[in-house]
Amino acid sequence: MYFGYNNKKGWMCMEYRLETLSRTSVLGVKKEYGTGQKAQEDIFNFWMDFDDKGKKQELMPLGNNQLQGLLAVYKPHANGEVHCLIGVTNDTDEAQWQRTELSEGRYIVFDAKGPVPESIKKGMEKINRHILPTLDYEFRDAPFFELYKEGPIRSEEYITEIWLPIV
Predict the structure, then answer these.
(1) Where would I find the H helices in 10-152?
(2) Could you tell me the end-to-end alpha-carbon distance of the chain, in angstroms, rounded to an integer?
């Protein structure tokens, strides 16, 4: 499905679909932020540190491919904190890693096309400013996540999936 909107520069489209996900465990490296704003400001540095320390190479072989690729899972808390975990889907106990759960249920999935991280920033702005206010979906209190599949993340054709939990 496509959602079209006018952004004063002309009509824009963003592809989305609905998916149902069973309860999914994600294993990886977690970082806690005092606010969502702090998470947004630091997420690039978190990814760089994750990559520089070779965590991607350590985690990828542990993935069970329930969702193929790396996930960035964001879990907002009532006190304003946001916990972010970069990892892979995995159902086994691995003591050296941290774990979070993705709730079972429906998700609206948007495709953010283009080089990372610019495409994510632009995609989230489009979703929050133009799309969500007009769609008739209620959000669940559950983590949301980005899915990064293998491929050239700096390419204009690269697709990052943004998964938002809905009722």
Answers:
(1) 36-52, 55-59, 118-126
(2) 18
What is the model's pTM? 0.89
The CB density around residue 167, as the number of other CB atoms within 10 Å, is 8
Rounded CA separation 116/114 (Å): 7
30 DSSP 8-state letter: E
Q: Is the pLDDT of residue 128 over 90?
A: no
CA angle 146–116–35, rounded 5-degree value = 55
Mean pLDDT of the chain: 90
Q: Is 84 helix (H, G, I), strand (E, B) or coil?
A: strand
CATH class, range 2-166: alpha beta
Residues 135, 158 contacting (CB under 8 angstroms): no
